[in-house]
Amino acid sequence: MRLSTAWMYQQSLTTMLSQQSALAVTQNQVDTGNRINVASDDPAGAGQVVSLNHVIAANTQYSTNIDSATTRLNTEASTLSSVNSALDTVRTLGLQAVNGTLSDSDRQSIASQLSQIRDQLVQLANTTDSNGNALFAGTSTTTTPFQVGANGVVSYSGNGGEQFSAIGSGLQVVTGDSGAGLFMNIPQGNGSFVANAGSGNIGTLVVGSNSVTDLSAWSSALAGSGGGYTITFDADGNWTAADANGNPVLDSSGNAVTGTYTDGGSISFNGMTIAMSGTPAAGDTVSVASGQQQDVFSTLNNMIAALQGGGSDTQLTNAMNRQIESIDQAQSAISATQVAIGGRLDTLTQQQGTYSDLNVTYQTALSDVQGADAYTAISNLSLQSTALQATQQVFAQVKSMSLFNYLK
Q: Model's pTM, two decimal places?
């Protein structure tokens, strides 16, 4: 068999190139710490690496979303705490205002304080998050959802939607509550109905606390009442009740509902009870209306107007009692939202902990699939380098094996 010089050269070159390629791969493993740097290194393993990287990237994004959601919810919780404190002050001032010993200047001073608190509440309602987005605008992009107009009337330009943040596959958490439910659409009275002394009353009748005592009776009777009732008194305290259509309210036997009121007593019918004090004059009335709403800013404006209106102590007390009820309803809505925020923050904390644990698991799996064993890689690098050097030396010796060299 004849071995040509060209064939020996080609074989040596092929061997050296192959060894150089293997050496380059091992050198890359040592430099990067990865066994798989391109798909050709291990096609099956490369597929696992791609899948694991996708999962890790998704979890990292969810963790980032959780951090942002936590910051936003903490800001909202802090803001609502300030709102609640302001409303506590409003309630205290409202109770102080019904003191019959107050002078007109005292009432003006309270009205001035309420005006300042109203402005403070507007500012709090327009609070923004770390990105400059309004907390209480719903899903609207409006940066200042609450605007103060003439005579202190506040309008809302946001919407009733809730903002969400994705914190997992198919898992979302509310990160923004609508100002419509927190500040604007607040139920009046006890949440079911509001009882108001007639504006034209001339007696000293004051409507106090009231409530639904029998929900079933209230609900069934309300359906046929037209949405409310009017209670009318005579000079002896006897009262009758009519529905919103002017028809007498009847009991289960078909008789007109009536009774006699005494100072400090209450009136009950159709599942509701209304406590009162004072003495009604003939023709004085109390209206009962359901489903009424009032924004918290109007509540303060009504209190301010009552204090500045120069009405009688009875009128002021009735006005303040109704507005204090509205304050209570507003605080109830805020407290419910604060509880909900606490639950959301707890969910975020648990989910963040889950992702932290999963990240360790996935990173370990990725290292097992993609990572190179440092000791093995360095050992292989040394062996391959030595082998390449040996091949190069052999080639140098083979290259010198020529008949012409021998003849010389």
A: 0.79
